[in-house]
Amino acid sequence: MSTERNEEPTPEEVRDRLRRRAIFLRELAEARELRRRVTPHRSRRARIHAVLRRRTFRLH
Predict the structure, then answer these.
(1) What CA–CA distance (Å, rounded) separates 51 from 23?
(2) Is 16 in contact with 8 (CB distance < 8 Å)?
(3) pTM of the entire structure?
(4) Is a pLDDT exceeding 70 seen at residue 7?
(5) Residues 2, 9: contact at Cβ < 8 Å?
């Protein structure tokens, strides 16, 4: 009872998949930008935590 597809996707399927992926990535970038603008304290906090993590693993 295997559901594997051995045939290549049609050009229309490939085009549709790429279009949906582009839309998803565009919306994801918009959401990240909106989140960065709406809650700047989160991005500032994230930067501070990143710096602290880098300091933690710094070799002397």
Answers:
(1) 33
(2) no
(3) 0.52
(4) yes
(5) no
